[in-house]
Amino acid sequence: xxxxxxxxxxxxxxxxxxxxxxxxxxxxxxxxxxxxxxxxxxxxxxxxxxxxxxxxxxxxxxxxxxxxxxxxxxxxxxxxxxxxxxxxxxxxxxxxxxxxxxxxxxxxxxxxxxxxxxxxxxxxxxxxxxxxxxxxxxxxxxxxxxxxxxxxxxxxxxxxxxxxxxxxxxxxxxxxxxxxxxxxxxxxxxxxxxxxxxxxxxxxxxxxxxxxxxxxxxxxxxxxxxxxxxxxxxxxxxxxxxxxxxxxxxxxxxxxxxxxxxxxxxxxxxxxxxxxxxxxxxxxxxxxxxxxxxxxxxxxxxxxxxxxxxxxxxxxxxxxxxxxxxxxxxxxxxxxxxxxx
Length: 341
Known about the structure:
With 341 residues, the chain is an alpha/beta fold. The protein has 12 helices and 7 strands. Helix 4 crosses helix 5 and helix 7 packs across helix 10.
């Protein structure tokens, strides 16, 4: 089912000399893809030796480099198809670029399963409403945006648009295709906070029933060190909120500003909370390698729909978001505990 989509140009982040960045990143991707393919016999032997001498019987180094091979070729194919779309006059076609994004995300998830044996179970897709959706997602790993793009694009048959950090523009597929569809690449270090909020709000303009605006309210990937620091910071800035959020065990305190802007821009939309277990510790490449050393790595992704009538607006939304985040934190803790018997 098709959807009418707004023009993406006004949502694009202004980055100086993008043609220089893209020349470098696209060349790097093609070099990596060709090098990994041509040197395949070499790195297979080296990775096997590293794993076997380290008694890593599930060969995590070999699996990770094999996934890197798949990623580099999917990235190279993605930017090549994006170039072909431009050559045939369909570079601005959001239907075509969404189809490319959907294919790219699906193939990456498939590659993750084949190379790393990583299984993913998804719950709650069938319960989604037909309204425009605002998705508030937990952020714990390098692949959260990829997983949500696969869930919403391939499983839910929706058109996701994202609030992402501008550093992701160094991924050439996200840079080229991601700026042809209505995403917003936020500058987290910008002093012009109002400008960033306006950009987030503009990203969600004219959303249709099959559209989903996705934001990660924590603002960064979670870990214990970040959680302790952010909760302690609340003690002086917002003592009442600190008393509430000090109980967090897995998630970071959410930031409500961007989510509030999206909520205001989608007055008729429902809210979806996206949380998961099984991706914790995958915030660094070392963490990914350690996780792949474990037997049968697996993840569970859960979507929870909240009717818009149950979601308050204005100042009350921050308290509502904090309460939901505490609930998700408890669910993540419970779902992560090993089963006995």
